[in-house]
Amino acid sequence: MKKLRIILEMIKFEHTVFALPFAIMSAFIASGGIPEYSKLGWILVAMVGARSCAMAFNRLADAEIDSENPRTAMRAIPAGIITKAAVWVFTLISAGLLVVAAWRLNRLAFRLSPVALAVIMGYSYTKRFTSLSHFWLGLALSISPVGAWIAVKGPFDLTPIVLCCVVLLWTAGFDIIYACQDVNFDKKHGLHSIPARIGIRWALWLSSALHIIAVGLLFCIPLLTELGVFYYIGVGIVVCIFIYEHAVVKPNDLSRVNLAFFTLNGMISLVLMALSIADILI
Predict the structure, then answer these.
(1) Burial class of residue 260 in the structure, from the number of CB atoms within 10 Å of its CB (0-12 exposed, 13-18 middle, 19+ buried)
(2) What CATH number has the domain bearing residue 64?
């Protein structure tokens, strides 16, 4: 249990809240009401398994890099608090949870589960060869609303694709903000990121542009669904959070990056999920 607590802290398990609300939101939209409880349960298992697998594998892949970065040197693996073997066991069990959950949901979800694993685990190596790694991370999280839609309804539709694009742009935007902390380290060690490539100021402008496009897509979703007033209120709150997020991070002041990255983005997904579900049920 002690090792498990260390690993859960290492992977910031509580930040599963980033993508999970979009999956639940997608499930409710797909069902037009409350989805079957069994499906919701297995969607939850799949999301927890996928996110835990991705983060644990990322810590394994980046262990040597983390050990050289002063910001990350005290993470569990480089600090010697946990062994790689223990993290590997956790990673494989988490991947197994995703596959089992997909199998229990339906055949299409099960067949696509290896693709999902390849995407979420492949992200860990992208920073070594492309500055577009932020968009790969966005793709990894954007699987969540599509996967939940498939779990509830089966075939693809335009609505989950739009939600997928929203999550991709939203994630890429806030990951660009987070990457601003490591510009000098990335340049020195030959790692790729958009802030390292174009500078912090232009990277923050690009992040803002991505979030503006994401908001535009959010306004398109009611055209494809029956979402209405409560959903629009949710989008309005999201816009306010985005404005604040970009106001607190400046090129010459990155002291509040963690606030922008963790707290505010967790609020965005939860608010949008809650008011979307309210719109469907009320």
Answers:
(1) buried
(2) 1.10.357.140
